[in-house]
Amino acid sequence: MRRRVRNRVRTLPLEIASGVLALALTSGAVAVIRLRLREPVIYSLGPLLTMTGIFFVAIVIGEVFRGRQPGTRHTAPMATAAALALAMTVECPHGVPAGYGAPLVVVVTAAAMAAGLTPSLIRRQPLRLTDLSNSLLAITVAAVLFREVPISNGRTVLELQASWRPDVLALVMVLISAFALTVEVLLLALVRAARSHAPFLRSFQDEFVAAFGLTAALSATGALVALAERPLGVLAIPLFLFPLGLTQFAVQRQSAIRRTYGQTIRTLSRLTEFGGYTEPGHASRVAELSLAMGKLLGMSERDVLDLEYAALLHDIGQVSLAEPIPGGATVLAAPADQRRIAHDGAEIVRQTGVLDNVAVILEAQTTSYRHVRELGEDLPLASRIIKVCNAYDDMAGSRPSTVRHNAAMERINLGLGYEYDPRVVDALGRVLERDRRHIGANAR
Amino acid sequence: MKDTGSKGRSQAVGVPSFAVSGYIAAVLFLAVGLAALAWRIHPLNNDVATGNDIVTLVALAVLGVLGSVSQERNVGGRISFSFVSIILLAAVALTGPFGAAVVGALTYLLAVDKQRLEVRAFNIGMASAIGAAGGFAYLMAGGATEVGDAGGVGPLFLHVGLPLMLADVVICLLNALILSGIVRLTQGTPMRRFVLGMLGTSGPAYIGYGLIGFLFVILWVPAGVGPASAVLILAPLFVARWAFVQYGDEQRAHERTLSALATAVETKDLYTRGHSERVATLCDLMAGSLALSHQETEALRYAGILHDLGKLAIPTRVLRTADRPCDADLASIATHAARGVEMVRGIEFLSDSTEAILHHHERMDGRGYPAGLRGEETPLLARIIAVADAFDSLTTSRFHREALTVKEALAELHQRAGTQLDPSIVAALERSLVRHVWEPTRLEPALMATAGRAFDHDDPAASDLMAGLAGTETST
User: How big is the A-B interface in CB pairs under 8 Å?
Assistant: First the structure.
């Protein structure tokens, strides 16, 4: 926990930088649009005001309910979909053509997002400005593509669409939204990669896969609302956001059960502590360290999750022992005992029928690295990570002094290449170095 | 719409009997009759100028088939999703009753998943019949036969939205009614209970289907998007469905993980191996005869699985004591209930179960532990676990005695009803054991030899022993 808080403090400047970048891009885009001379469009103000007013309200509501749980993407889907629809609206109520340009879309969206922040400000919750500026950028991209970029004979999509069939227009709308949202995911991946010190390409892949479902739903809904405005007027906005509401509900349920699952595994990992088999906090410290190393070594989100669970449960095999090992430190136990505990743990986890990957990791957690070198065995990276982290924590313990830390690192370095994977030990050094710098910085 | 798709293959229409075949034939007959009537009232519009219903119909049927591929697997919890209902509603407004009947029939006729012949026939008949009935309801409520003519927002709601809602209600009711017949025949569930149950669980979803069906129709005709509207409308729903399926998978994974890891704790003691699992099963049986709610049943099952988790914190030496442990050891054993609660405190969704875990060794006469609660002061779920716990202990081999038969164990429990156990729950156990076979757990002599001797704290005799201890404690 402590470590996580520290990471947040550290990456904050980076997040601000990315937020500023997104805002700069947005305003740059708006400025460029401004330069482009537009024919003055005469449109009646009434219908336009009604429509933008309702969009404004929809975005504000969506923003107020912006999800706060970490790990979920597109945290305000209703707001994003409404803003996308505003960006791609072709007709105001009463059949008035919607001739406005992208700047109006950006201004309305930004104002609504700002208004949506009010409850967070009152409750003094942290503002997720990075997410907000990323979303705004996506909306800007969509609005510019739809309303400003000339695609054929100097005419924009908005000007051309009158002669298109509605289903062709629908397809174009979906494509534009999907492109804009992918840009958002790209920026999000940049932030995440910086935050977890993970390789960028891996982060983008993870974010893209995780966001794919909602991106599809959002793209479709933006187009739905924009198209349904013709027959239904502004009523289309609340009505056609309804299916997306269902999606949001489902996705939230899904991430809620994921959280509960993690919670259960964390609690169960403490069973051995309750039974007096292991030191308090050992499992969670090993898990935290393994997690940081897994990300650093570029493992995928799915693999990192398996790694985390395996690290949490790595000592579960000890419950089958009649009497606890002194101090619970497996690194000091005889190799045969270590292997048996690992095997029992893997068996227990395999019983669940759903954690087979974790069981495979547990099975191999005591295998020496030389098996890879000499026998060409296929040893999962996760197992190698847990082996190193477990050894470090067994020897250094919680909040080690510099002396203990150095002693532990020295012992691990003695087994380098024979017992431990050099690449993993190197990652351990880097992660710990990062943390120790922090403790130093915080102490000062 | 709920069909017998997944259920039917395993059990619902498992035994084709004369009555079942007759019922299916009657449903098919009803469907044909309704379709003929529909053709008389409102034949398909074949005129290319005003819109060709055949094209719409084929497009809808294709969508229906696609929708039925992912039809109605139980999506975790009690959320279910049905694309076919939405497609049927769209067919009602776009093509009229005959079109809806045809779309319903085609959907299951062409469905690609492997269904047994009679299941398929039943589904075809039911979908077709409810489609036609929905179409009649739509027309009777003044629904527009040409949606495109209903210009303007007001007429769209009045002549399309409202009649479609009515059609939705009719489809929902008729679906429940026809299904309840087949379930009555194959599983013996009373029709009234089934219909009420189904309206309770999937009734709210039908409101959503009605609304989405309406949006679908609007996008199709007045907005002019045509068949492509299916992609736009159904994309968010497909994603929602996918998330719900994932949710269901995760939830099952969660449950299995929890029970497997909890069972692992039992490996310490050969005698109690499988005990938690069996207690949870007994609790499930009793939940049925005590008519517990869905939520209570869930909480009870988790409490059953985890009720002895706290034993992990008790030194193995104490659990391995042969005959009568010393008072200090008994006191240590008595802490397992509270220790168990301590262990699962971090898990939010178990909050309903913790009470039951804490109090599962209370007695009706107030001499139990840890709190000495009396009678109904003990939470209901804890009293249920107490009975299951004692019953499983009695029907399992111990080093000093054979496993009791179900009859002997029940007699023993009846003797203790009122002092240790709640009589009404013992009665509930007896009721549920009439309908379910329970095999006593007989352990191999060889296994028992290696297991050695152990103190079984769940044996009713142990409860008396510990009650005596509590008595002396309070008296001194």
Answer: 183
